[in-house]
Task: structure prediction
Amino acid sequence: MDPTPWTVTEVGEKLRDGSLTPTTLVESALARIEKHDGSLRCMTQVFAPEARRRARALESGAPQGPLWGIPYVAKEILSTRTGRTTCGSRFLEHYESPFDATVIERLDAAGAILLGKSNMDEFAMGSSTENSAFGPTRNPWDASRVPGGSSGGSAAAVAADFVGFGLGSDTGGSIRLPASFCGVVGLKPTYGRVSRYGLVAFASSLDQIGPLAKSVGDAALVFACIAGHDRRDSTSLPLAPPAHAGLGEPLPGLRVGVPRDWLGDGLDAAVRHDFDRVLERLRDAGAVLVDVQLPHASHGVASYYVVATAEAASNLARFDGVRYTRRAGAASDLATLFETSRREGFGDEVKRRILLGTFVLSSGYYDAYYLRAQKVRTLLRRDFDAAFARCDIIAVPAAPTPPFRLGEKTSDPLQMYLSDIFTVPANLAGLPAISVPTGMSDGLPLGTQLLAPALEEARLLRAAAWLESLVGFVPLGQRRNGQGG
Amino acid sequence: MDFEAVIGLEVHAQLRTASKIFCPCSTRFGAEPNTQTCPVCAGFPGVLPVLNEKVVEFALRAGLATHCTIRPRSRFARKNYFYPDLPKGYQISQFDEPLCEAGWLQIDGDGRRIRIHRIHLEEDAGKTLHDQDPGSSLVDLNRTGTPLIEIVSEPELRTPAEAHAYLTKLRQILVYLEICDGNMEEGSLRCDANVSVRPQGRSTLGVKVEIKNLNSFRGVEGALHFEIARHTALLEQGGRVVQETRLWDAEKQETRVLRSKEEAHDYRYFPEPDLLPLVVGAAWLETVRQALPELPDAKQERFERQYGLGRYDALVLTSTRTLADYYETAVAGGGDSKKVANWVQTELLGLLRARGLELESSPVQATSLGELVRLVDSGSLSGKMAKEVFADMAESGEAPAVIVARRGMQQIGDTATLQGLVDAALAAHPAEVAKYRAGKTKLLGYFVGEIMKASRGQAHPGTLEKLLLAALEAPAAGGEPRPPEAAGI
Result:
């Protein structure tokens, strides 16, 4: 048996019975960061004095809240009063938000301790966390590999056991892909489940905030704390957060849909092997595998890069050098002020997407691109409706490849975009999806993604917890503690 | 060849809600720069808009009052452009699915109906101040997020005068609805005009020009006159009008090019993903409809019918809701409705004009004016006395009865008293009496004057004249004059 508390659920018990204190947790987290983050670069900011103060303040009262005393890290794209909110961009290098995002407020109320902020691809545009203005983050399993992106900092910080959990944002896979690459659990909730207030918008109709965690149980715990209606976000659903009972129970008879047609091309052999093994385990445990079709899923990435870039070009227009952002010096007129500030402030990938997004919305092109992409979303939603009429959950790999090497795809944006091939459909259709670590390939973790119908997070999490118990994946932290094989 | 103009107007009206369209900041005009802002209206990263329901209600009032069709489900859209006073880099507006469509309003004068193409909701931008600080421009975001409706007419106005009449009526309706204060100087009502000129009788439109910076009704008329003359001259000389946006210079009374068609913005409209479609249920719409006030056209017709007023009087008295209310309060005092109408239009409005006052701050209360007219009607005051009392009311703000008592101005209509005055006058001027009776009847006026002087103008002229005639025409024998002391004055 494992005597070392590892998950938030286990640590929480120790905190509540007094055998651990928030201060001890904060200090050990700070020590680990001090020791390992110099090479990993997960953390862009560490709020040591604030976290220590917060731990002491919590200790002055009785344990309260489901995340009492648990240190966590928030992606740089989430607004926090503490520190800066840089979005991984030179443009916002010195930007301090005057308010906390709703999720930060809710985690505060749940008793969690904000330990710092995590690295990301600039404005969440990327799949490897190499597009950060503050340098790339490395994969804790193998420092020559990327952690995935864009929430790579949070995923790596959780995998490296710096914190109990991390918050990420997922527009086309930015939680699930790094979860898969870092061997942790990543949940993207149903669109509208979690308030986006305070999340610096990339693509407003696709963005969702979700947890990166060490277990499905932890992800469920954090999700329950951050979900629920927020009147500051008109797109947040007026529903109470769902209750999660029965995690870890076996689910014999669960109908697992497998869209085999879609998995054809570009799938790495190791990924295919692991996925087949996962399906075998599920079937052996009593799941019913069902063939389903998602005929429009193959248009997912193309549609995604139209919708997401169109919205991004508009959302990023506020960074113009006039107010809180970097301003290019000595501009003689307005156009020069805008142009120079944006040229100096944004990185290449962001510029590429702004150009693309501006183009697809241009007069005369709207119908051919934006409108058409929106139609694909509708068709994709119908595909999912039809598929879920025949199954309870859909399973696909989280990523088409194992974690790749730093620099491997930076010169080929299209190859980088294809990393999201299995994750974008959930965003386009607004569905909840989760990545669960299920296997290894050459010492690197691989994840399996499960998708459920909208608002069926409870079903998704139960299925994910069952899968987790079936595959027996040993996390990095456990391996380092010497318990793993 | 004769030419005709085709004019369409786009009017932006600021809605008078207490708070902004997407955040709780105040919309009050004239505050210190950047004191009425928050992260939402200042467009900070990570903020989201939340629609103010009151704004929708106000827009619905405008739509219903102008006979528009209300979309049960409309949508907000982003209009993208860069400007320092537009902090998000886009304006939240409505594009292909506006809240209100296909309405009309009736312009006064010839009573023509002008169709309204659409009314949509949007947020105002901030202000860029170029004249506050040498060497730099300053931005004030207080106005950012102030709710606006844009009212777009069909291009069917034909003359600058019609455009003026349309604007007057539109403003009147908006002010009646209490959704806009209609103040063009403060920018709560702004107008852009589209104008083209074509040979009379042709059905295709000429090349249009958009004119901006029209911040007064006079400016709209002036700019349209200028443009129509410019287009007509061009066309007559065989030239061509170029499609462009022009700016009205009120000082020079001319327009000049702001940007050409090639420089026109591509606003890249797309549905606003941060807001849900705006759904207006039948029940909500009905509640708003029920709460609509009586509108100018209906009120004017009622005034003609109920108070027996002519079209002109009814138009003047219903020009604003406050004036109409004032009139109806005054009439409720029991005076003759036409006389009250005259008093309001000549004396009251004359007074306000002379003093530069708004009706709201009139020193003469409606109930007082009504009472004054009733005193005239009942014969208690002569018209001349009433004007004196009115002048006093304008100074003192007191009620007519108080003034009449204070000044002892009650008109003498009582026969016995008047008979005494007549008798005294005849007794005091026996020579004139004799001359009158000898045939010099013009002397009647002399006696009236004497008695008016003696009564300090308070004698009721009609009764006095009757009594005077009776006394003068009476046989001499019966005319035993009484001593003046008996006059009792």
User: Anything to note?
Assistant: Chain A has two domains: 8-253+404-480, 297-374. The first strand of chain A starts at residue 43 and ends at 46. Residues 367-388 of chain A form the longest helix (22 residues). Chain A has 16 helices and eleven strands.
